[in-house]
Amino acid sequence: MPTWLWVWGPAAAQMIAIFFLSNQAKLPSLPGGLTGYTGHLIGYALLGALMLRALVGADCRRLTPGIALAAWALSCGYGITDEFHQSFVPGRTATFDDLVADACGAALSIVGLVIWRRVRQPAARTRGL
Q1: In whole angstroms, what is the distance from residue 80 CA to residue 78 CA?
Q2: In this structure, what DSSP letter does residue 103 have?
């Protein structure tokens, strides 16, 4: 399997899944009574984590604050394009609240992974992570 596919494939697959779901005029209810905002939060938490993984080349030793910020910015950028896309889908609307849920989901997973990296590998603290 080519390296680029191993590194970027999961993030691309998540973006395709988000696009597919956004293209549906009506989505089924989420299990357990979860809200649509929770769905956005979960979907973009996964995208944020996968985007971070891609940007570090699937090597967490390369994680820096700048890469973490880039992963969040790219995830949010995709959220903006997703909301724009939804504005053209009959029965769907683009909302700022959804974009906030997207940004929060991506931030939660990225910050969580940065914290995990610092706790799991204390030597990273001395390198400025």
Answers
A1: 5
A2: H
